[in-house]
Amino acid sequence: MTIDQQWGDMMDETEFGYPPQTETVEGDIKKIISYEDRDEKVCKVTRYYKLTKLKVAKPIAERKKWRKFGDCATDVSGINPANSMVGDAVFLTLATKKEQQDNKDDDVAEKMAKLKASGQGMVVCRICKGPHWTKQCPYKDTLGVALDVQQGNEEANSVKPPTRAPGAYVPPSIRKGEPADSQTRQRDENPTIRVSNLAEETCEKDLQDLFKPFGPVSRIYLAKDKNTGISKGFAYITYNRRESAESALQTLHRFRYGHLILQVEWAKPSGS
What we know:
Layout: E1 2-4, E2 22-26, E3 29-38, E4 41-50, H1 58-64, H2 97-117, H3 143-157, H4 182-189, E5 192-196, H5 204-211, E6 217-224, E7 231-239, H6 242-252, E8 256-257, E9 260-261, E10 263-266
Antiparallel strand pairs: 1-4, 2-3, 3-4, 5-7, 5-10, 6-7, 8-9
Helix pairs in contact: 3-6
């Protein structure tokens, strides 16, 4: 845009007004000459535009054919800079939740790659020992609680029992080599726990996802109605190791699962 302030191009505003705006097109260049009042001076303003062809949507093309009105009723086709202003194009790109999660995963993978290349070692989760940070562990709500309980049990087991005087009476339940009671013997032989207060829509897969993080599961029995196939609200989970069953019992007893509070206890023998 160039501004020419030669007085020979000015007109007497009080008698004739400003000269009309003129447009000339030479190839793909449009030249527009107009007169404006700037700082109490009449200036001749020359603007140059480069013409480009842009393919737009059909509704936009139809809208360009509308008849002008008001102060623009006598204007030619196109934009009149004297009374219109065109802003810069703004392009808005909305990202979906999946794209945001993918970007987050890419950032985590990039950080881990940099850490590995630096020679400082791989990141190891304190809960599941996986190659990720502890705060991003998918088993944080289940194994994390179990880890705290296990650490508490280890601290409790580290306390030595009080020594007894020679010849003192020792109850049979705590004598060396004797089981505490029949229930303890049953637990050692068959580490099975009973979980109740389950929702009707619970299935075996849900129980697998809930109890498998504590250890290998050998069998899951979900009680269902014979006619409808809906869960009766309780199930039995058998582990390969007693330690796994104890950890699941201590962690998931009174655990909020969905909108219900689970009740977990040792399964009673069949004959009782």
